[in-house]
Amino acid sequence: MTNVLLVCSGGMSSAIVEKALVNEAKSQGKEINVKAIGSGIVREELDNNKYDVLLVAPQVKHMFNSFKQIADDFNIPTKDIAPREYSPLGSKALLDKILN
């Protein structure tokens, strides 16, 4: 099981992407757990839970380096989500990014 933390502006806009990722993983016979959160609680979430990767949504890409510094404290890789990946149609490419 791969545990993914997806940070976006408010934690709500990523629900569609979250669901699409889980469905894509199931279609490929893989297990993935995705949690979307707002940008203000990244450190708190990483303090309290174990994740394998931190994804940064396009709307908060300007904060990528800040999120990366936090994730680096937990030895968690940080990856940005390209705008074309931030939709149900981009879920295959985004899953590939997560798993590779």
Q: What is the CATH class name? A: Alpha Beta
Biggest sheet, spatial arrangement of strands: 2-1-3-4
- The ordered H/E elements are EHEHEHEH
Number of helices: 4
CATH architecture: 3-Layer(aba) Sandwich
Query: Could you state the CATH homologous superfamily?
Result: Response regulator
Please give the domain count. Answer: 1
Largest sheet: 4 strands, parallel
Please identify the structural class as seen in this structure: alpha/beta
Intertermini distance: 14 Å
Rg, nearest Å:
12 Å
What number is the mean pLDDT?
Answer: 94
The overall strand count is 4
What is the fold-level CATH name, i.e. the topology? Answer: Rossmann fold
Topology record:
Elements: E1 2-8, H1 15-27, E2 32-38, H2 42-48, E3 53-56, H3 64-73, E4 78-80, H4 91-99
Parallel strand pairs: 1-2, 1-3, 3-4
Characterization of the model:
With 100 residues, the protein is α/β, with parallel strands linked by helices. The chain has one domain (2-99): Response regulator (Rossmann fold, 3-Layer(aba) Sandwich), CATH 3.40.50. The chain is 39% helix and 21% strand. It has helices spanning 15-27, 42-48, 64-73, 91-99; strands at 2-8, 32-38, 53-56, 78-80. It has a 4-stranded parallel beta sheet, sandwiched between helices. Strand 3, helix 3 (64-73) and strand 4 (78-80) form a beta-alpha-beta unit. The longest helix is centred in the N-terminal third of the chain and has 13 residues, at 15-27. It is globular. The mean pLDDT is 94.
Task: Characterize this entry briefly.
The protein is α/β, with parallel strands linked by helices and 100 residues long. It contains four helices and four strands; from the N terminus they run βαβαβαβα.
